């Protein structure tokens, strides 16, 4: 479970080296509840670099590799990510129960949170057609929560009404993709996930603070 202080997760999609990454993160760590890393880090600084990040910054690290393979590969990846200091992993729902069952149990045993991707912030019509099925699947698997896009507030509301308060809803798509800051949490998400609006800004701290104001006082 991600502890909620501010309701904001940084999508840290950068190809920077670890030193630059750590300096950047230290500048805004007090304002964000978790750091989402993914393919950019894996391909640029590699597993050792990710380990350096998770050791150098004291926060919740969410791996967004949209994992979606057959069961034993999924389980291997979860074990390796745990060794790298990762706390939560985003997985595709689309691979279905047989490929998710074992990994959901393994993750609980290892203390890793699984967040199931059940809707894309752009496109993803196959997901949206099967929303109810995927939400039910997630609740039966015993995962930590779901990824629901800020660009589709009706989906956030629907998922929240289905799962109550027992699951955390993480919402990407704020800022560059069109979601208005504050409106995903106002629709029922626990966290907004923001990347480029913060990372590419000349003053990341000011932008982050303005997003936090919108989360506290949404105008949607
Ligand atoms: O830069 P931006 O704020 O658009 O970043 C959004 C982040 O959320 C990216 O890391 C992207 O991979 C991720 N994401 C998304 N839509 C999903 C799931 C994850 O945009 N459905």
UniProtKB/TrEMBL annotation:
Keywords: Decarboxylase, Lyase, Pyrimidine biosynthesis. PANTHER family: OROTIDINE 5'-PHOSPHATE DECARBOXYLASE. SMART domains: OMPdecase (SM00934). Gene3D superfamilies: Aldolase class I. One of its GO terms (biological process) is 'de novo' UMP biosynthetic process. The keyword Lyase applies. The active site is at 64 (for ompdecase activity), 66 (for ompdecase activity), 69 (for ompdecase activity). GO terms for cellular component: cytosol. The keyword Disulfide bond does not apply. It comes from the Archaea. Its EC number is 4.1.1.23. InterPro entries: Aldolase_TIM (IPR013785), OMPdecase (IPR014732), OMPdeCOase_dom (IPR001754), RibuloseP-bd_barrel (IPR011060). This is Orotidine 5'-phosphate decarboxylase. It holds the Pfam family OMPdecase. It is an enzyme of class 4 (lyase). Substrate binds at residues 13, 36, 121, 195-196. Pathway: Pyrimidine metabolism; UMP biosynthesis via de novo pathway; UMP from orotate: step 2/2. Residues 7-211 form the Orotidine 5'-phosphate decarboxylase domain. One of its GO terms (molecular function) is orotidine-5'-phosphate decarboxylase activity.
